[in-house]
Amino acid sequence: MPGDRSTAVIGTDGLDALIRVLAAGGRTVIGPTVRDGAIVLAEIAGGDELPYGWGVELEAGHYRLRPRDDGAAFAHSAGPQSWKTYLHPQRERQWTADRGADGAMTVTEDDTPPSSYAFLGVRPCDLRAIAVQDRVLSGGPHTDSRYRARRERAFLVAVECTEPGATCFCTSMGAGPAAEPGYDLALTEVVDAGGHRFWARAGSEEGASVLAELPRTPPDGATETAARERVAEAADRMGRSMPPVDLQILMRDTLHAERWNDVASRCLTCGNCTMACPTCFCTTAEDVTDLTGDHTERWRRWESCFDLEFSHLPGGPVRASGHSRYRQWATHKLGTWYDQFGSSGCVGCGRCIVWCPVGIDITEEAHALNDERAAGAVQDEAPS
User: Measured between alpha carbons, how far is 218 from 200 in angstroms, rounded to an integer?
Assistant: First the structure.
């Protein structure tokens, strides 16, 4: 195609070709697909595995697939997983130790080469989440070398949101529904009288090279206009919102609000919210030894601040109550994350709302805290 290599229009055949081109380049392509009653992330080999014609019905503590008449591939909201599953795996071996016949110990670091992933269907909220984890895990003085190696090899295909879910609030967090820089390719899906197509833009040299290999047509005004309109409309149809205040200050001013007791009475401290969250990064270490005692392995796995043992010290846990653990999670996510990493730890994806078994809604809690503060009912210090 002559002219600009950075923008084009592709059809569903181009989407299928995109998957095959990325796979032919040695990448493991991960994208959304329908499995076990949900739209989940998994390795895919062709466009026919994408969830064409499926949407989702979301509410607090509720997730259901629903068929769509338009055959759209990406008109669904964030599912139970995020790309964290691949960039910052749930469980990862760090080293092994073996005792030989002479009693000498040999410790071997696990140096398994990182996978080269291509992520297809990265929502703008998840694109922001990846950027947040980049700052946390590879942007400071204590870099996670394994995360950085996987991240440097990843190819990101963002898909802008045109139909937000009932639990989405990315606009409140400045994380969507339009894709911000950080992608290799960005797609916006359009299904109308003009056909089923995608407005595609390259965000990197590699993205432009991949786009040049796909069946495509030059960008046209009608497709670009329709794509922009659908994203703008999505911004006005968010199912949730945060109060329009400085959330960092709100969290600081309401540490002793009565609302924390209310939410603590409902919270199961199960940690689902932290497991589903695309930015939560805490881990712990566990050692596994075989029956002989001659072989042991050190594994790193995800940990949750809702776990009673998370803050355990010789004198006992620092946060022994569900009240203190929920408050720690929410105030860190919305407030003190700024102090550590310069941004919010929340991207407005709504996963914590959907996958909470009792339907606790972080936006509802923030509004309640703001209302309590506005009424002057927040105590200056914890009651004695």
Answer: 10
Number of Cβ within a 10 Å radius of residue 156: 24
Separation of alpha carbons 262 and 243, rounded Å:
19
62 bridge partner residues: 59
> pTM of the entire structure?
0.93
CA pair distance 237, 76, nearest whole angstrom = 14
Say if residue 177 is preceded by a cis peptide, omega within 30 of 0.
yes
**In terms of residues, how long is the chain?**
384
Sequence letter at residue 380: D
The burial class, CB within 10 Å (0-12 / 13-18 / 19+), for 361 is buried
Query: SS3 of 185, please?
Result: strand
> Cα 283 vs. chain centroid, distance in angstroms?
17
Token pair belonging to 98 = 């073996």
* Backbone torsions φ then ψ of 210, nearest 5 degrees: -65, -45
C-alpha span between 80 and 64 (Å, rounded): 12
- 3 state SS of 117: strand
pLDDT tens digits along 324-346: 999 999 999 999 999 999 999 99
**Residues 6 or more apart in contact with residue 42 via CB below 8 angstroms:** 30, 31, 33, 35
- How is residue 161 written in tokens? 């949101």
Find tokens 């940990």 and name the residue. 303
Alpha helix ranges (H) inside 71-204:
84-87, 124-138, 145-153
pLDDT by residue (tens digit) across 11-68? 999 999 999 999 999 999 999 999 999 999 999 999 999 999 999 999 999 999 999 9
Residues 6+ apart with CB under 8 A from 239: 58, 164, 165, 166, 167, 168, 169, 350
For 272-299, what is each residue's pLDDT tens digit?
Answer: 999 999 999 999 999 999 999 899 999 9
